[in-house]
User: Fold Glucose dehydrogenase [FAD, quinone]-like isoform X1 from Galleria mellonella.
Amino acid sequence: MTNLRLFFQILQISNKKILNSFHSSRMISSPEICQCPLVDEGASIVNSPVCNGIILFMMLIESYMKGRCDIASPCNRIVSEKNPEPEYDFIVVGSGASGAVVASRLSEVDNFKVLLIEAGGPEPIGSRIPSFYRTFWFNELVDWRYRTVPSNYCLDQEGQGCMYPRGKVLGGSTLLNGMMYHRGHKADYEDWEKAGAQGWSWDENLPYFDMTEGNKQIGSLVSYKYHSASGPMPVQMFNYQPRAVDELVNAIYESGLPIITDMNDPSTPDGFSIAQTFNENGQRITTSRAFLRAKWERPNLSVLLHSHVSKVILDGKRAVGVEYIDTKGNKKTVRASKEVILSAGALNTPQILLLSGVGPRETLRKFNIPVVEDLPVGKNFRNHYGATLYFMLTKLNNTQALDWNVFSEYILRRTGPMSSTALTQVTGILYSSLADKKRRQPDIQIFFNGFYAECSKTGRIGEPSGPCPTNGVNVSANAAALLPRSVGYITLNSTDPLDPPLFYPEYFSHPHDMIMIKDAIKYLKMIFDTDILQNKYGIKLDPEYTKQCANTGQEWSDKWMECMARVHTDAQNHQIGTAAIGHVVDPDLMVYNIKGLRVIDASVMPTQTSGNPQGTIMMVAERGAAKIKEKWMEKNARISNLGQSKAMYQKLRVGPYGPYDTEVTITSDTNVKKSVHKLEILSKMTKMRSRS
Ligand SMILES: Cc1cc2nc3c(=O)[nH]c(=O)nc-3n(C[C@H](O)[C@H](O)[C@H](O)COP(=O)(O)OP(=O)(O)OC[C@H]3O[C@@H](n4cnc5c(N)ncnc54)[C@H](O)[C@@H]3O)c2cc1C
Assistant:
C-alpha cells in the first residue's frame, strides 16, 4: 500500500506531458489485482550504482512493475522457513545455477526432506528486466562484491584488484548474469575426462543438458538434434533487437567473419550470433524462478534465506550437518542424515571446505584449523579473461534508450528495449592461432556492451538518459580467452566466515593467454575497420581509455594490445575448478575420503568449457542430483519419480502466477522474425561464400 500511495503522490508532481502519455493507455494506468497481496522485498532499482541520481522515473517504473502480476509474481513466493527442523535428509548450500536445480530435483522425491540454505535474500523485482542486467552489480543487498587481490592486471581499477560481481541472492549469479545459453564443445568434455572426470564425456552429459533446457525455438531457429524443449529452464532469443544489433551483425558480416544461427550446433562451432538466453515473456528467468517455484506444492522442501553457512560439521570423516549464521548474527546448526551438498559456487565453496578442515594441510595449519582431510581445495582456480576496448560512435548523438514510450511498450507487451540486453546479446566464439581446429574447440569469445535501456532522469520522450557525451555514443567490447592456461588459487584471509576469501587468479602468468587475447583483439579490429562502423557511425577508440597505453607506440600494435589487456583487463565471471573432479571430488562429486559430503557447482569443473558456463553448471547439477537419487532411492521409486517430475513441470507451466503464466509464441513476434530471418539469410550467404 505504501508503495501505491507513494506512486500516486509522485504522479501528481510529475510533469503534465508525461502524465498524458502515461494515461494514454488504461492498461498501464491501473495496477492489476493479483490473487495474492503484493510484497515489497529485495533490492530496489532506484538507488542502484548504475542509476544513481535519477530517482523519480525509476521509482515510477518500479511501482508499475509491482502492479503487474506476472512480473511481481506475488503468489507462490519463496519464503524463508521460520522454524527449521533440527534434521533433514539433505542440506543444499547455495541457490544459484547449481543449488536451485539440485534442491528442486531432490525434492521431487516425496520422502526426501530437503533444506536449501542461501546467504542472500529474495529476488528483487527489477532484476526481471533484461535491460537492467547490470543494475544490481555491486549492490550489497544482492552481490558479494568480491575483488581479486591487486596485481599487475585490472590496472584501471585503482589498485583495488578486479571486480568479481557474484550473486548473493536466491538464484545466485543467475540473477546478475547476461543470461546467454551455451553448452560448451565436445572437446571441452574430452579435456575433462583427461583431467580425471571419467564418465563426463559429451555423449554422457547430453541427456542432462536436455533435462534442464526448455527451448522455445526448436524448428524455427534451432534443431531438435542439439536442443530439448522439455526442461523447466526457458531458452530463446530475446524478443527484441535494437537497430544497433542489426547494424553490428551487418558490420560483422562485412568484416568477413562467420555468422551462425545456433551457437550450440556442433557443426558450426565458431562464429557470431544473436545468443539464445534464459528469458521468457520479456523477463529474465533465474534458476530459482525456473526450479524453485515447485516448492509451493512440495512440503518436503524448505528454504532458509539470509543464512550464511560457516562450515560443514564433520564427525570424524563423515558430514553430519552444517553450522550457519542467521539474520541476527547467531550461530546455529542443522543436521543432515544423508548428505550435505555444497553448491555455493567456485568462490565460496572452497572457503566453506577450508573452514571445515578440508584443504591443503599447510593452509589449514597456518590458520590453526584441525586437518580433517588434506586436499588441494582452492587450487586449480580458472576463469575466462581478456581485454575491454572502449569506442565512441561519433556520428550518433542521442543516448536515449529508456523513456515512457519504451516503458509503455514493455508494460503492455513485454517487448521493446527493456526486454533485451541490447548489444550484449550479440557474441562470437572464434579460433585463435593456438586453437585446435581439428577438435573443433574455439578458444576466444567476443562480447559487446552498449545501447542499454537502463536509466532515465524523468522519462520524458527524447530526453538523454544520462550525461550525454558531446562527441558520440559510448560502446565497448570484450576480447576474452576461453581456454587460458594461467591457473590461480583461492585461500582464506582469516577464520572469520564473513571475511571474504583471497582470490589470486594469476592472470597472464602463462604466455599463451596473451596470444589468445591479442588474436581476439585482432578480430575486433576487423569489425572496427568496416565501412559501416567507420563511415556510417564514425567509430573511434575512446581516448579516455587509451591514454594509459599512449606511450606504447601505435594503436593496435602488439605492445599496445598487451598494455590494453593489462590496464583494461576483462575479468569474466566464469570462475571454476576450485574443488575439481579428480582433485578434490571423485567423478560422483563426493569429496575424497569424506562420507556424506558432495560438491555440486562450478567448483567441480576441472577445466574450462569454451563458452558461457551456466548451461554446463546446470547440467552438472542435474547429473549430481541424479547420482544422489541413484544412491538413496529405492529402485521402484526411481522409476515412478521420472514420470512425476515431468508432470510437476507441466503443471507449473500453466500455473496461475508463476513465470510460465503466459505461453509466449516467440516466433510470432515481428522483431524476432525479422532478425531470425536476417540471421538465416546471413548464415546461408556465409555458407555459400565459404564453399565458393
Ligand atoms: C555478471 C555476470 C555475468 C555472467 N554472464 C553469464 C552468461 O551470460 N551466461 C552464462 O552461462 N554464465 C554467465 N555468468 C556465469 C554464471 O552465472 C555462473 O557461472 C553460475 O551462476 C555459477 O553457478 P554456481 O551455482 O556455481 O554459483 P552461483 O550461481 O554464484 O550460486 C552460488 C550461491 O551460493 C550462495 N552462497 C555462497 N556462499 C554461501 C554461504 N556461505 N552460505 C549460504 N549460501 C552461500 C550464493 O549467495 C549464491 O546464491 C555470469 C556471471 C556473472 C556474475
